Amino acid sequence: MAGRTRMRRTTTAKTKARRRKPAPQGRRSSERLGKSAGMKRYDSALDRPKRVKPGAGLLFRLGMKPYQASGSVLLLLLIALLTFFFQSPNFYVWRLSVTGTEWLDPEHVRRMSGLDGLSIFYVNPDQVADVVLNLPSVKRVGVRCQLPSSVAIYVTERVPLAIWQNQGVQYWVDESGMLFERFADMADPVVIVEQDDITRRPGELVDTRVLNKVLELHTLLPEVSAFGYSRADGLLFKMANNRQVWAKVDCDAVKVVSALVAVEDDLAARQLSPGVVDLRFGTRAFWR
């Protein structure tokens, strides 16, 4: 009887241990596989329908992917934003300033620029500078745009060194030989009268050698402020005693003045008073 009891106890312990043994990993119950829940069972994952996100039906009908739809939306937003910037009156040029002008009329520069009422996004600073540079009296131009509606034009005008007279018309001439409009009267101007049969216009360049030589002679002979010039004959000026003096364009101004002083002394010693003294032939001076 005791042996039977021991065997029964042992059997009961083994049964309990077998019942307590955990199920193998990866094994699922038939209920989780959908047998008892009434769910449809598929033989493979390829047969199972794809999950579709809410709202994605329209994209599939249009044949678009989500990233393509996002790009299209961003493109439309960009187009709308650019349309707003280019059409909004807030970005039109309403403030146009012109600085640096001394003789030019700032209003004239504004009209030439053509910027009034133009969208600031259409403003090309280089093109505006080129337009203003068409004015012969303008040497340099700078253009700066500032959102939302401001444009500033900085002008550097040419500095006149002398007056160049051609066919009875007087122009200003700067260091580069550029002729431009005479806007006002200069204090003690140096005048160069071109005697050749040629017509000049503002914006033309003249020989800077003539300009520089005339300014050198004027520095050595301050009483002389008017000079004649021709390509064939060179430079001509008149002394205080109304005596005319001829000199070459490429002459040495210091030597010319020294020779002129010596000739004047010689003429005074001889009590001669010629009307013309010619110093175009080196060390020789001729008078008549």
Short description:
With 288 residues, the chain is α/β, with parallel strands linked by helices. It is built from 7 helices and 12 strands.
List the helices and strands and how they pair.
Blueprint: H1 2-20, H2 57-61, H3 66-87, E1 95-99, H4 106-113, H5 125-132, E2 138-146, E3 150-157, E4 162-166, E5 169-173, E6 179-180, E7 191-194, H6 208-220, E8 226-230, E9 234-238, E10 244-247, H7 253-270, E11 276-281, E12 284-287
Parallel strand pairs: 1-3, 4-7, 7-8, 10-11
Antiparallel strand pairs: 2-3, 4-5, 5-6, 8-9, 9-10, 11-12
Structure description:
With 288 residues, the protein is of the alpha/beta class. Among the domains are: 89-157, Ubiquitin-like (UB roll) (Roll), CATH 3.10.20.310; 162-287, Rossmann fold (3-Layer(aba) Sandwich), CATH 3.40.50.11690. Helices cover 32% and strands 22% of the residues. The protein has helices spanning 2-20, 57-61, 66-87, 106-113, 125-132, 208-220, 253-270; strands at residues 95-99, 138-146, 150-157, 162-166, 169-173, 179-180, 191-194, 226-230, 234-238, 244-247, 276-281, 284-287. A nine-stranded mixed sheet has the order 6-5-4-7-8-9-10-11-12, with helices on one face. α7 (253-270) links the parallel β10 and β11. It is rod-shaped, with a radius of gyration of 49 Å.
Order of helices and strands: HHHEHHEEEEEEHEEEHEE
CATH evolutionary superfamily of the domain at 162-287: Cell division protein FtsQ/DivIB
**What is the CATH level 1 assignment of the domain at 162-287?**
Alpha Beta
Percent in strands: 15-25%
Rg, Å, rounded = 49 Å
Shape annotation: rod-shaped
CATH architecture of the domain at 162-287: 3-Layer(aba) Sandwich
Task: Give the rounded overall mean pLDDT.
Answer: 82
Main pleated sheet = 9 strands, mixed
**Strands side by side in the biggest sheet:** 6-5-4-7-8-9-10-11-12
